Amino acid sequence: MDVSHLLDELNDAQRQAVTAEDGHLLVLAGAGSGKTRVLVHRIAWLIQVHHVSPMSLLAVTFTNKAAGEMRGRVGRLLDIRPDGLWIGTFHGICHRLLRMHAAEVGLSDTFQILDSEDQFRLVRRVMRELEIDESEHPPRQVQGFINHHKDEGRRPGQIEHFDRSFQSRQVEIYQRYQDYCERSGLVDFAELLLRTVELLRDHPERRAHYQARFGHILIDEFQDTNTLQYALVRLLAGDGNRLFVVGDDDQSIYGWRGARVENVAHYNRDFQPEMIRLEQNYRSTRTILEAANQVINHNDDRMGKSLWTEGEQGEPIRLFSAYNAEEEAEFVIARIQDWIVQGGRPSDGAVLYRSNAQSRLFEQALLREDIPYRVYGGLRFFERAEIKDAMAYLRLMHNPHDDTAFERVVNVPARGIGEQTVNRIREHARAHGQSLGQAATEMVAQGGLAARAGSAVGGFLQLIDQLTTARPETDLAGAVRIVVKQTGLVAWYQKREPADRAEAREENLAELVRAAEGFDQPFEDEQAGLSVMASFLSQAALEAGEHQAERWEDCVQLMTLHSAKGLEFPLVFLAGMEEGLFPHQKSIEEPGRLAEERRLCYVGMTRAMQRLYVTHAESRQTYGQTNFSRPSRFLNEIPAELIESIRSSFRVGSAHSDRPVAEDAGGFGLGAAVRHSRFGFGTVVSLEGQGPNARIQVNFEQAGSKWLVLAYANLELVA
Q1: Helix or strand run (H / E) with residue 289
Q2: Could you give the CA distance from residue 454 to residue 440 in angstroms, rounded to a whole number?
Q3: What local confidence, expressed as pLDDT, does residue 401 receive?
Q4: Is the dihedral of CA 441, 444, 445, 449 positive or negative?
Q5: What does R_g of the chain's alpha carbons equal in angstroms?
Q6: Are 60 and 43 in contact (CB under 8 A)?
Q7: How many CA atoms lie within 13 A of 125 on its CB side?
Q8: Strand stretches in 221-310, DSSP E
């Protein structure tokens, strides 16, 4: 049989992994090293060369998209229909098994899966039945408690606690929640895994059946497995099956959601596999790989590998030290414009950041320059729930008859105003031709609501009055600060949501304050006589109403570093490289979390194919205060010879004064007065690069700031 087509396109290390003989294998696959190709070809090799039945193979990956891609590639490679192959996610495989053996694990044949939001609502319902105060036990935290213990394989009776303790109440909720699920035939995501582990653990005949069935088990992204998933792997592997594990300890960035990078070490201990390293990278230039290798080398306890490429050395990594976050955003968008002018596509570029709150300034600049963009894996800034909540309060302060805003926040934060009460207010408003605010005011005054509901609605109306009275007439930022502080939104999110999500919402609200501080009222709004508040609300609504580019459209990609894993782009910007932001302040003091932050930096750097920019700002404003930050320690871990530093518009020199910077060219030094035939007179504020590709930034008196290629700018020096 001619199997040369299975090996022709593989390099030596990939070929070694694909053709490995019997035994367990650990493929340590670096970023961009072709791990999916290896997995697909391994499956094809086992089927075509070793005559392994397709039905005795089990391949597990972490997303449905990746599973679908793997099935499709195997089908094309072997010219077979891949529908019957056991290729899927952990949750998908477990769901398939439980459907086949529902009765054996105490489930009905018609059991239903609860998604995260349905699970949250059920937790709240159970807590109300138990009359548990949500302020003491926030439902989101209880939901996280349940899922965490399920991921660790623990049922309520296996959790240690003391009677009448805080944890005992959460265990009580967990037990009541689970009882409800059992009666109703409901299974949450974590339960899919736990119930399957219990099926194999507690039913020896089933365990023996599937161990005999799946002689070869292949697992992708192994560094992202949690405790329960590793337990499932061990049960299926037994003593005789062959494990083919692909992972990269340097790309383990999901510890905050239960992933355990130590599972790679546990696999080495438990199965003693042969290790093959995939270190040849097919994505990035040598410069980018050398820089990424040097950064990740600062982590201890690595299994060790060094990415390399046969490709070109490539351009140096550009480091821009901005004066503030606004200048950072302007610089990034100017580079994207330059890329497009030189023939690149908007979709070639990606702006990566540590916190979602950082997206606003980039969105603002892209909108201003009419460059299409997409916030990958998230909402645009003014579409985010916490921003819409705060804006609804601002709208009520500006217009107490805004019914949409009233309905959004009348019970946000929760103040005991249920849907039945809101319905009564709606009916009164319809009957009397009033706004909801007017109807509510009248019903409270006339005793038209039950005592408890009337008190709660009255408290809400009083809050709106207090906010309206307290806000400075012309100080927009002051009004936003008052809303964020006095409504209790931040504390509410902290009580009802996991810490990481609540923290992100708090950061976004801080960014809203910053947006108000920097708001420049459009000339046409001022001419129309709009107040600054009315103008701000209008502009925000227009921005939120802009249709976000779909994924197939040609647009710049904005995303968090966590969202970027698995993607690649010719042009990448790592923004906000500052101590306290990246690495995050909460990770700096903990070695384990700091190591994960460094892995996140490594992942971000290795998304870049051709050109990589790293940027930081000396100052950012939060809640009206200017905060000064040192450059991220990760920047200092990049060798100086791989960096080209770029001067800021606002001062000569940079935070990295020991690095090479662009030289003055043709007499156009910083501060030089120049004239352009189209843009008029201006002042040189920044220089970048050398030779014919040198770029110059000029602050023109009429046209504003422009970046120009010096060789084609036709600038004239003005005495």
Answers
A1: helix 286-296
A2: 9
A3: 85
A4: positive
A5: 29
A6: no
A7: 11
A8: 242-247, 274-278
The alpha carbon of residue 220 and the mean position of all alpha carbons in its chain are separated, in whole angstroms, by: 21
- CA angle, 588 then 591 then 592, to 5°: 110
Read off the DSSP letter of residue 608: E
Query: Token pair for residue 566?
Result: 């698995």
Measure Cα distances from 695 to 93, 343, 351, 368, 664 in Å: 54, 17, 21, 22, 10
Give the residue ranges of DSSP H helices in 606-689.
Answer: 633-636
Nearest CA to 436 out of 407, 462, 394 is that of: 407
Residue 577, number of CB atoms within 10 A of its CB: 26
Interval 490-502: pLDDT, tens: 999 998 888 888 8
How many whole angstroms separate alpha carbon 253 and alpha carbon 269? 22
Rounded Cα distance between 627 and 673, Å, is: 32
d(CA 96, CA 72): 19
Residues in contact with 465: Cβ distance below 8 Å, sequence separation at least 6, in sequence order: none
- pTM above the 0.85 mark? no
Residues composing the chain: 719
pLDDT over 60 (residue 662): no
The pLDDT confidence band at residue 605, using thresholds 50, 70 and 90, is very high
b/e burial code for range 326-352 (CB count within 10 A of at least 16 → b): bbbbbbbbbbbbebbeeebebbbbbbb
CB of 348 closer than 8 Å to CB of 339: yes
CA atoms within 13 A on the CB side of 482: 19
Q: What is the DSSP string of 528-589?
A: TT--HHHHHHHHHHHHHHSPPPPTTSS-EEEEEHHHHTT--EEEEEE---BTBBTTBHHHHT
DSSP lists the bridge partners of residue 59 as 87, 218
Tokens encoding 12: 């030596």
Q: Measured between alpha carbons, how far is 452 from 445 in angstroms, rounded to an integer?
A: 14
Query: Between these two residues, 550 and 104, which has the higher pLDDT value?
Result: 104
Residue 663 clears pLDDT 50, i.e. is over it: no
604: enclosing H helix or E strand: helix 591-605
Q: Copy the structure tokens of residue 281.
A: 């990278």
Contact by Cβ (8 Å): 16, 244: no
Tell me the C-alpha distance between 327 and 576, whole Å: 12
SS3 185: coil
* Burial of 136: CB neighbours in 10 Å, binned 0-12, 13-18, 19+: exposed
pLDDT tens for 26-49 read: 999 999 999 999 999 999 999 999
Residues forming the active site: 35-36, 220-221, 251, 607
Say what percent of the chain tops pLDDT 90: 56
Average pLDDT, the chain: 88
Domains contained in the chain, CATH given: 4-98+194-280 (3.40.50.300), 113-184 (1.10.10.160), 283-380+546-660 (3.40.50.300), 382-542 (1.10.486.10), 662-719 (2.30.30)
